[in-house]
Design goal:
About 25% of the residues lie in helices and about 30% in strands. The chain has six helices and 17 strands. A hairpin with a 3-residue loop joins strand 5 and strand 6.
Length: about 290
């Protein structure tokens, strides 16, 4: 397998429930529960700049206390897009580089499509897919939707970092199902949908999200906001209980196209000297 590169990101190794990554000149060790095997490049781990522990949080070689002396982190770079990295309390840093193959796909397809795009990115987090679409589209608007206000504010900051026009992305904090139900009543539709739902999540008011339980209902709502002449649908997830065939089936139900038209893929981070990291699956379709 060829070495995975995404801008200035590189996976160095993974194993023992952790991953070792380099972004710019900084290295990060953080959780990777799917890496149940042993690390392959043990000599690379000892001098990591930033280390996350689920009990103690982040520690850094450049700051004794992350809360009191925050580190100056490099930006993550994908083409001309720059995104801010942060050491979050849950061990996240604000990027999902395993989406690179989908970002490349979105960028090339949208850039070659002269239509005016109306794109909804649900579970949009810090905005990688939103920014890629906004940068590629000649006309149209990207709707960036997430239930987390902090994630949406982070995405706003990334839009500014990327130098994209203020009116290229519309940012919304909302529960995706509630938002889609309102869009159905408003008779609004989208030419493109991007969804990367978590396996489990919590929202205000005690509501929970469980992928196996809630995704079928969400896809029914999506089928009602999908434009009659759609451009694309991209659905990815990180739940081992969901298969690529499951995702393809959901796409078929929204688009009303045969399964043969749906492309499926594994999202894998590969490493030159270490182990590869399986990091989810995806199903996608673009109008031919």
């Amino acid at each position: 397998m060829k070495t995975f590169k995404c801008g200035n990101f590189e996976l160095l190794d993974c194993g023992g429930g952790r991953r070792l990554e380099r972004i710019g000149n900084e290295t990060f060790v953080r959780q990777a529960p799917q890496a149940v095997f042993s690390p392959a490049a043990s000599g690379l781990w000892e001098e990591a700049d930033h280390l996350f522990d689920k009990d103690r949080g982040w520690s850094s070689s450049t700051a004794k206390d992350i809360d009191e002396s925050p580190c100056i982190l490099p930006d993550f770079e994908y083409g001309d897009i720059k995104m801010e990295l942060r050491l979050s309390e849950n061990g996240q840093i604000g990027i999902y580089p395993e989406q690179k193959e989908n970002w490349d796909w979105l960028s090339s397809k949208i850039a070659a499509d002269p239509r005016e795009h109306r794109i909804l990115n649900g579970f949009a987090y810090t905005g990688g897919s939103s920014l890629v679409c906004a940068a590629a589209a000649k006309k149209g608007l990207v709707c960036h939707l997430d239930a987390s206000k902090s994630a949406v504010n982070w995405a706003r900051s990334n839009r500014e970092r990327a130098g994209l026009p203020e009116d290229s992305v519309r940012f919304i904090v909302d529960d995706i199902s509630a938002f889609l139900e309102r869009e159905i009543r408003r008779q609004n539709s989208y030419t493109g949908l991007i969804l990367d739902p978590p396996a489990f999540g919590r929202a205000k008011g005690g509501k929970t999200w469980r992928l196996k339980r809630d995704l079928p209902g969400l896809m029914k709502l999506c089928s009602r906001v999908m434009d009659k002449d759609p451009s694309f649908l991209l659905l990815s997830c990180h739940d081992p209980e969901v298969s690529k065939e499951d995702l393809a089936g959901y796409c078929c139900s929204v688009l009303r196209v045969p399964a043969a038209e749906i492309e499926t893929l594994d999202l894998v981070l590969s490493s030159e000297k270490g182990n590869s990291l399986p990091n989810g699956i995806a199903a996608r379709w673009y109008r031919s």
